[in-house]
Write a structure and sequence with these properties.
With 365 residues, the protein is α/β, with parallel strands linked by helices. Helix content is 37%, strand content 16%. It has helices at 44-57, 67-78, 93-100, 117-125, 146-155, 168-171, 186-190, 206-219, 225-235, 238-257, 277-280, 296-306, 348-359; strands at 60-64, 84-88, 108-112, 128-134, 160-163, 181-185, 199-203, 262-266, 288-293, 311-312, 322-325, 338-342. The chain binds pyridoxal-5'-phosphate (PLP). Residues 66-68, 71, 92, 94-95, 134, 163, 165-166, 185, 187-188, 197, 199 line the site of pyridoxal-5'-phosphate.
């Protein structure tokens, strides 16, 4: 029913699900007996993608109009009056901003450094409603041990949720590691083509799933069917894109670490790799890395401006390599000379060549 295909009519089945642009479906009697009635409640194009998203995490998935819409639904589902939510100190700015904006409404965001176990345990003990993890973090690419933190949270009867936007379920499966739910900004690597904004939440918990769905419907946090279809198409190649991007990022991180103009490189696969990553991220560490250029903010801006292949742009996870000096954003707390690079799927030699010439630009020397 959901596929809209024409079984029984003698027509061939399509290899790709159709796009259903309808906002209204014919239905009679109890609406609970109709799969689709009205566009804000559900849509067969969402369903087809949600099945694929769910399979990737062996869970139920719900599609949202953006990663932030999924984050909002999850925060609202986990909290009520007087709730405290424990957030990692280097989680996505949009998420910490959102969580902190609930302050006047009785929900407190408690920001902790996930690397400091004592602080985390103390925060969990203050009747926390949830532990919100993001790993690898961005733009410093710090990692956290999801299994370890989830078990600490479980001891305090606190559910753990993970913002999995950077790795996606192809590189990291938080629910297998003890998390109750994950969210993913589909805008990034999950769709991969820098042409839409969407988000998703996944869980194996029926009660939470129902709450998330209620918030989506009540607040209209919904996706356009056309975007859902496009994202579904991109998602089919996410696994191979991320594998290749991870290989490219590792090669580039190694190259930058040996470059005389580069003071520091941040990538989970550099130096002494955390032992838990062997099971947590077995297929690679993702497309994103960052590095600090000698010469400060001006030198970093100059390097970014000098590239001919790597696109000067924000966001990450797309098929085209892109970079930016992060501190150009007022909200950024990263060092002024830090450049965040998202490695695309170009031949890695072409990206290395562009890096070599960009790092040779005047002010950078
Ligand atoms: C981009 C991003 C979000 C927000 O997603 P949108 O699709 O832009 O709403 C949330 N968390 C992380 C880690 C992100 O990178």
């Amino acid at each position: 029913m959901g596929s809209g295909s024409s079984e029984g009519s003698g027509e061939a089945l399509s290899a790709s699900p159709p796009v259903s642009l309808a906002s209204v479906w014919e239905s009679k009697g109890d609406p609970a007996n109709s799969a689709y009635t009205y566009g804000r409640y559900g849509n067969p194009t969402w369903t087809a993608f949600e099945v694929a998203l769910g399979e990737a995490e062996s869970a139920d998935a719900l599609l949202f109009g953006s990663g932030m819409a999924a984050a909002l639904a999850l925060l609202l589902s986990l909290t009520s009056d007087c709730s405290r939510i424990v957030l990692s100190s280097d989680c996505y700015f949009g998420v910490s901003h959102l969580a902190r904006s609930f302050a006047g409404r009785g929900i407190v965001a408690e920001i902790v450094d996930l690397a400091n176990e004592e602080t985390v345990v103390a925060a969990l003990g203050r009747q926390a409603a949830a532990l919100w993890i993001e790993t690898p973090s961005n733009p410093l690419l710090r990692t956290a041990d999801i299994s370890r933190l989830a078990s600490l949270a479980r001891e305090a009867s606190v559910p753990t949720v993970v913002d999995n936007s950077l790795p996606t379920a192809h590189l990291q499966r938080p629910l297998d590691l003890g998390a109750l739910a994950s969210i993913t900004s589909i805008t990034k690597a999950a769709s991969g083509h820098s042409d839409l904004v969407l988000g998703a939440a996944a869980t194996r918990d029926e009660e939470l799933l129902a709450a998330l769905r209620d918030w989506r419907t009540a607040a209209g946090l919904i996706a356009s069917p056309m975007d859902a279809w496009l994202a579904h198409r991109g998602f089919k190649t996410a696994g191979i894109r991320l594998e290749r991007q991870s290989l490219g990022a590792q090669t580039i991180a190694d190259y930058l670490a040996a470059h005389p103009r580069v003071e520091r490189v941040h990538y989970p696969g550099l130096g002494k790799v955390a032992s838990y990553l062997a099971t947590q991220m077995p297929a690679g560490y993702g497309p994103l890395l960052s590095f600090e250029v000698a010469g400060g903010a001006d030198a970093a801006e100059e390097v970014v401006a000098a590239s001919r292949l790597i696109r000067p742009a924000t966001s990450f996870g797309g098929v085209e390599s892109s970079w930016e000096r992060r501190a150009r954003w007022a909200s950024e707390t990263a060092p002024p000379s830090l450049i965040r690079l998202s490695v695309g799927i170009e031949p890695v030699d072409a990206v290395l060549e562009d890096l070599e010439s960009s790092l040779a630009s005047p002010k950078a020397s």
